[in-house]
Amino acid sequence: MKTRTLGLGGPTVSAIGLGCMGMSAFYGGRGSDAESIAVIHHALDQGLTLLDTADMYGPHTNEDLVGRAIDGRRDDVFLATKFGIKLDPNDPQVRGIDGRPEYVAAACEASLKRLRVETIDLYYQHRVDPQVPIEDTVGAMARLVEQGKVRHLGLSEASADTLRRACAVHPITALQSEYSLWSREPETTGTLAACRELGVGFVAYSPLGRGFLTGTIRTVEDFDADDYRRHAPRFQGENFDRNLALVEQVQAIAQDYGVTPGQLALAWVLGQGEDIVPIPGTKRIGYLDENIAALDIHLTEDDRARIDAIFPPDAAAGTRYPAAGMSALNR
């Protein structure tokens, strides 16, 4: 397994990680826990080390699943989880953000218990709390490092300014943000440049565009009834059709390489810099192997230019999230 380093002098992890969210939440068609655990075990057997979860996936059930999967294999895993998004137990559509120091400590304790570990390798603030200074939240996270409960700190969907302020309090090992052919905002907002300026690693979630860039989604009816993508702007109406036309153009380039569109999309993300680690999610061993194989694809400059011409930063139709989700992003 190829490896990459998160940030300057940071930890070494597999060059591609495994996002575990879809095993428990949001994408519908949930398989059995046994199948998901088998996928995680297969990933570890292939040398993949970075596993990504969060307390709000489920909520809580995904951390429990990952904890059971890595039991007895802790030394094989670089374990990342997140805190900060709180779901209303009476209405899962209602969410809040909490970055208060006392909540940081309580959330970490709960995650450690669910994950069945003594230390979390990488602890992210899932969303920045606009009501709490980032200095206060990161200060509380830093105390977790001092206590040996966390090894490295991270932020998710934080702006360049927020990242700079956080780094002034404690080293930030990784920034996790959505990044893919159809979500290139980190390039235009300055967050990717800020990571490189500050020596922070970049972890790309949804590098396959929530599955859309694989070319296997042809209609919204391909989603289960409880799949949240049915309500996401990029998957609706004319936006869906416009985005599908872009994917079909990428598919033609993938055919030239004899690879799948998803593999080409992953190869593009991997080729954006050695400091970037994508974490595609999957519930199937076959797709996991397909994603890992993308590490061996090396795009020519001409083909990168062809892809960039199809998917410039503003190409995708529709926002990444519905209005409530977009308002939670720190920009």
What is shown here, in short?
With 331 residues, this protein is of the alpha/beta class. Helix content is 38%, strand content 16%. Helix 3 packs across helix 4, helix 8 packs across helix 9 and helix 8 packs antiparallel against helix 11.
Topology (elements, then pairings):
Elements: E1 3-5, E2 12-14, E3 18-19, H1 33-45, E4 50-52, H2 61-70, E5 78-83, E6 85-88, E7 91-97, H3 101-115, E8 120-125, H4 134-146, E9 150-156, H5 160-167, E10 174-178, H6 185-189, H7 191-198, E11 201-205, H8 237-257, H9 261-270, E12 276-278, H10 285-293, H11 301-310, H12 323-327
Parallel strand pairs: 3-4, 4-5, 5-8, 8-9, 9-10, 10-11, 11-12
Antiparallel strand pairs: 1-2, 6-7
Helix pairs in contact: 1-2, 3-4, 5-7, 8-9, 8-11
Describe the structure.
By secondary structure, the chain is α/β, with parallel strands linked by helices. It is built from twelve helices and twelve strands. The strands form three sheets. It has an eight-stranded parallel sheet with strand order 3-4-5-8-9-10-11-12. It has a two-stranded antiparallel sheet with strand order 1-2. α3 crosses α4 and α8 crosses α9. It starts with a strand and ends with a helix. The relative contact order is 0.14. The model has no long low-confidence stretch (mean pLDDT 94).
